[in-house]
Amino acid sequence: MDTQTKQPRAVTYFYQSLDPDVAAGLSAEQKRALEEAVIAMTLSSRHRIDIRHGFPFFHARFYFVFLFGRDLRRRPREHPRWYDALITLLIVIGLLFCTASVLLALYMIKSALHIDIFKDYHLGVWDWFMSLYGNPPQR
């Protein structure tokens, strides 16, 4: 293989593990086919969720990758003791914020449609929201 061109790491490892006499006996077409096969094998992964998509955007092409699965690496990453607690706290705060936002949006839609679930009981959020824009509450 021509070492001048940049190869993916998997292809480089493949040629390092291949017998040099066998590699020398391969034609250019055989090398290209083997490289494509190695690259195709490394793209498939053991993730439960593996989403890879590309999309055009302003005369360029971008991609996004979302992987989810169990960490099977031999050596776990080193983190301070408080790191896991901080990540858990941030996730909980984020979920609470999203839940509160959805509930507030649903309440505002309910109030805008003048739907009363409990007769003559209101939290006052809709009235406060309408007072911000100079409209008096209409109850």
TrEMBL record:
Q: What is this protein called?
A: 3-phosphoshikimate 1-carboxyvinyltransferase
Q: Which UniProt keywords apply?
A: Membrane, Transmembrane, Transmembrane helix
Which parts of the chain span the membrane according to its record? 82-109
